[in-house]
Q: What sequence folds into this?
């Protein structure tokens, strides 16, 4: 027999319905669905908290993240230093905050740039084709034949380590995915009737593509932006952890974790690396929750 | 495709400092050779020939198995590869098997119990799995299982006293589980959503109308059809598995090709970097070909398209 | 009422409610009918009136977010009376009934057949779970079933996949699958809607033969009055979850007493009657199931409606076989 809880739930709904207590609301479905997804809202809150914390870093912590203070080395967390101090006496908490700025900038920024480029080429290419599309397709195929980390490492070894290099490299490895996604959406959208109607009105190709069709392709692209951001932040963290990402003089989340390669630190001074790792995980998790919420609300095939 | 890439790789190689000759001869010889002999060798090797000709020579010698020499130790690249690739293969394949079996089972469980606490718990766990940086998870695991409880060795693959296969198992446990983390979470999520999609289709209703038992409907009819997109999606994530092994190998000091790759990047050992990159590309392309074949095997609809 | 010997299945006051999106949809709201042995009952109505839901309820194939609220479904198997509504949804007794006593065929055979298994495999499953036949016997029976249903080269076709069959052949295969264990009742949910008209005729001929050769009771769900005219022995007209009129085909088609039935008959062009047929579409449209009119559900669209129609009419027996649910039936057809 059906479980009791399900039966009770049905009884309640039936009672409400028969007494006219239930009415369909016709509000903005997208926003509604997103807000109903508790995880997505949680993700949004966490995401905002962390970003605001990094932006307002100077207000939240009086210490200079680069300032060395040999008198207070390796101190556990205290009221003075919320996350303790590291090997050279730098305040870990402010390093995490300032480091967040760089990591988030690299992750979110390159993801958005890659999306911009990918969308621009992909929309036009998917809609109209032509030699630009063919070349872009081949080039993106080449890029996706590499595992991402390998490609990044390869390019880093050629160009050398720096923040801007990493930024550019991420955009190079990321635009392909965006391009192919928006292109695929365009390919299916261009069979829709409203496109043919617009064409018959003589509206210019550019306008049709960018003004009318692009907004309809945005849903999956937004989801992909969140996924890329997550992936780039993790990649940057991994590379910097190995000392191959952003140069060690600039604090990033990955760089801070670099100290954990030393077994002594790993075992004894957990505050130097564990909180950062948790912060990274929480941030990426928040981004993933948001992405999931976006995916659910832009996907028309969901049921109660 | 692979030719295009090999062309690009060689082009990149050409751009880097150092001459093809200095890469092709072993360093012992290079130390004693005179300038005229060097020039003669260049002539003999056709280095004064055009770029395309040199490319051709390089390509054919690669196909014959001669990959040139590493700048750092002067060891033949081929030997390096032969020594390190099996270790990486071991790790990757174990991780792949674990993540596929575990991920799919949990995904099916999650789909069948949709909306329950189990489902929610697994979904969140899955998302955590893709959000935690793998190396961080590795560090925590090493700290807890390796140092604190001392259940598992902290790193490395072989120790001198290892005699048979069973001895090596403790070493592979942590690295493979950590490597499997992200792929398991992905597999779980794909199989869950694929199952949910398939379970709402008409033929499931038909199967039920025949009076078949629930397990048969869910597994035989349901999962069998849900499997195809899952295989394809796992195939997309394979490059991540292959790439992810590099960092894991570093953390666990696993003597695989990923470890070697990072060392070569650090040392700016360009020939090695290029060759390993090329090899990775080869692996990715082969893997996607295998996935295509596998898909055709399990889904008769795909077969028809190929006729 | 008929005496029990001729009745295969009896439905009384059945109510099935759906609970999706946290709303309550009274998809079937008090439905009663009998399915007689060896006869075809056609259940007619527009999309959304609840006819498919009724069929799914009989087989207990409802989705998770729904349940049988009230009512009885009595299956007269040989000498037993089985109350289907009391059985556990996917329990052993229900599974025994499904496939071997009551079988169902669906609207679109392409989606209703599993694409990764051969047709033979899917038919054999039915036999495997309801009979004691061995592998060889099952295979022979499967081939002979395909042959009976008019599929050419059955020995070859049995090992092929659904996508290499044509639309009409797929539906025949599905009928073969349903008839494998010689069920007492066959429920057909709009079996020809997805097929060409010429194939339609063949499928219906096939079903008619089943009735004659195996004495199968058939419940045919359709929205096409033309089909009803061809095949029905008994008819039940459904609207928004209620049966508004039921009786023998003769009763309902020649002496319709419900405004909806009459409107349905008037809205169908008849082949051969010539060009200037007076085709009247039914005014208005079916109401939102969550925003139903009070009382008789058809009242807003009915030309005969007045204040009395704000109360749901009871079932009136016009004759021993003919029932109608309307306050105004006397005005529709003078008996």
A:
């Amino acid at each position: 027999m059906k479980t009791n809880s399900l039966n009770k739930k049905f009884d309640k709904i039936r009672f409400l319905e028969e007494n006219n207590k239930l009415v369909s609301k016709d509000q903005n479905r997208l926003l509604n669905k997103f807000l109903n997804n508790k995880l997505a809202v949680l993700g949004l809150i966490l995401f905002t908290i962390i970003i605001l914390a990094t932006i307002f870093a100077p207000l939240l912590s009086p210490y200079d993240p680069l300032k060395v203070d040999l008198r207070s080395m390796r101190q556990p967390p205290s009221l003075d230093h919320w996350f303790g101090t590291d090997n050279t006496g730098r305040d870990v908490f402010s390093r995490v905050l300032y480091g967040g700025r760089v990591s988030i900038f690299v992750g979110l920024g390159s993801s958005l740039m890659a999306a911009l480029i990918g969308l621009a080429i992909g929309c036009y290419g998917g809609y109209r084709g032509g030699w630009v599309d063919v070349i872009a397709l081949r080039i993106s195929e080449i890029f996706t034949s590499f595992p991402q980390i390998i490609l990044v490492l390869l390019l880093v070894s050629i160009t050398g380590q720096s923040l801007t290099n990493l930024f550019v490299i991420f955009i190079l490895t990321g635009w392909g995915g965006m391009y192919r996604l928006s292109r695929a959406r365009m390919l299916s959208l261009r069979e829709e009737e409203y496109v043919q109607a617009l064409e018959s009105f003589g509206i210019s190709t550019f306008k049709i593509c960018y003004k009318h069709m692009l907004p309809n392709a945005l849903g999956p692209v937004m989801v992909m932006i969140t996924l890329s951001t997550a992936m780039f932040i993790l990649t940057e963290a991994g590379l910097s952890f190995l000392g191959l990402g952003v140069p060690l003089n600039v604090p990033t989340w990955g760089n801070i974790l670099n100290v954990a390669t030393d077994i002594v630190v790993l075992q004894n001074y957990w505050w130097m690396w564990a909180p950062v790792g948790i912060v990274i995980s929480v941030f990426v998790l928040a981004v993933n929750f948001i992405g999931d919420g976006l995916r659910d609300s832009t996907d028309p095939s969901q049921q109660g | 495709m692979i030719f295009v890439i090999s062309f690009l790789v060689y082009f990149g190689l050409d751009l880097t400092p150092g001459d093809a000759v200095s890469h092709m001869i072993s360093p012992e010889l290079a130390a004693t050779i005179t300038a005229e002999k060097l020039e003669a060798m260049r002539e003999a090797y056709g280095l004064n020939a055009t770029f395309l000709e040199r490319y051709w020579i390089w390509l054919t010698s690669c196909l014959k198995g001669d990959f040139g020499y590493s700048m750092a130790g002067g060891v033949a690249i081929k030997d390096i590869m032969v020594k390190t690739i099996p270790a990486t293969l071991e790790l990757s394949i174990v991780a792949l098997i674990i993540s596929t079996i575990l991920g799919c089972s949990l995904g099916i469980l999650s789909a069948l119990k949709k909306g329950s606490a189990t489902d929610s718990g697994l979904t969140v766990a899955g998302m955590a799995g893709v959000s935690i940086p793998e190396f961080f998870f590795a560090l925590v695991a090493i700290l807890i299982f390796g140092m604190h409880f001392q259940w598992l060795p902290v790193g490395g693959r072989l120790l001198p006293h290892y005699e048979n296969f069973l001895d090596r198992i403790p070493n592979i446990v942590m690295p493979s589980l950590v490597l499997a983390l992200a792929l398991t979470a992905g597999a779980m999520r794909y199989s869950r959503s694929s199952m949910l999609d398939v379970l709402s289709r008409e033929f499931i209703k038909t199967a039920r109308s025949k009076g078949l038992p629930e397990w048969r409907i869910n597994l035989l009819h349901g999962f069998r059809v849900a499997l195809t997109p899952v295989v394809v999606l796992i195939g997309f994530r394979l490059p991540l598995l292959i790439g992810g092994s590099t960092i894991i190998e570093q953390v666990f000091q696993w003597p695989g090709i990923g470890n070697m790759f990072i060392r070569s990047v650090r040392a700016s050992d360009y020939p090695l970097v290029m060759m390993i990159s090329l090899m990775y590309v080869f692996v990715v392309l082969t893997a996607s070909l295998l996935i295509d074949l596998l898909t055709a095997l399990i889904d008769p609809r795909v077969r028809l398209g190929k006729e | 009422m008929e005496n029990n010997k001729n009745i295969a299945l009896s439905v009384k006051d059945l109510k099935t409610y759906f609970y999706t999106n946290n709303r309550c949809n009274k998809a079937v709201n008090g439905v009663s009918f009998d399915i007689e042995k060896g006869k075809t009952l056609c259940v007619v109505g527009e999309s959304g009136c609840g006819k498919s839901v009724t069929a799914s309820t009989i087989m207990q194939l409802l989705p998770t977010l729904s349940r049988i609220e009230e009512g009885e479904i009595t299956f007269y198997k040989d000498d037993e009376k089985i109350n289907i509504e009391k059985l556990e949804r996917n329990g052993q007794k229900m599974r025994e009934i499904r496939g071997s006593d009551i079988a169902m065929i669906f609207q679109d055979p392409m989606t209703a057949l599993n694409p990764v298994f051969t047709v033979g495999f899917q038919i054999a499953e039915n036999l495997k779970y309801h009979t004691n036949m061995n592998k060889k016997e099952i295979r022979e029976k499967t081939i002979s079933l395909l042959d009976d249903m008019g599929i050419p080269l059955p020995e070859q076709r049995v090992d092929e996949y659904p996508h290499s069959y044509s639309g009409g052949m797929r539906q025949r295969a599905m009928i073969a699958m349903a008839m494998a264990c010689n069920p007492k009742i066959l429920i057909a949910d709009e079996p020809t809607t997805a097929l060409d008209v010429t194939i339609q005729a063949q499928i219906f001929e096939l079903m008619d033969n089943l009735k004659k050769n195996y004495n199968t009771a058939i419940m045919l769900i359709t929205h096409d009055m033309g089909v009803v005219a061809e095949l029905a022995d008994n008819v039940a007209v459904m609207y928004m979850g209620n049966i508004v009129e039921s009786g023998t085909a003769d009763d309902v088609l020649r002496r319709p007493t419900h405004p909806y039935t009459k409107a349905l008959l008037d809205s169908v062009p008849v082949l051969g009657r010539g060009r200037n047929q007076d085709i009247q579409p039914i005014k208005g449209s079916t109401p939102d199931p969550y925003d139903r009119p009070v009382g008789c559900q058809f009242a807003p669209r009915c030309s005969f409606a007045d204040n009395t129609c704000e109360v749901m009419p009871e079932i009136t027996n016009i004759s021993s076989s003919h029932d109608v649910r309307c306050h105004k039936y006397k005005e529709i057809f003078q008996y």
Chain B touches chain C through 21 residues (CB under 8 Å). DSSP finds 14 helices and no strands in chain B. Residues 17-28 of chain B have pLDDT under 50 and may be disordered. The first helix of chain B runs from residue 2 to 15.
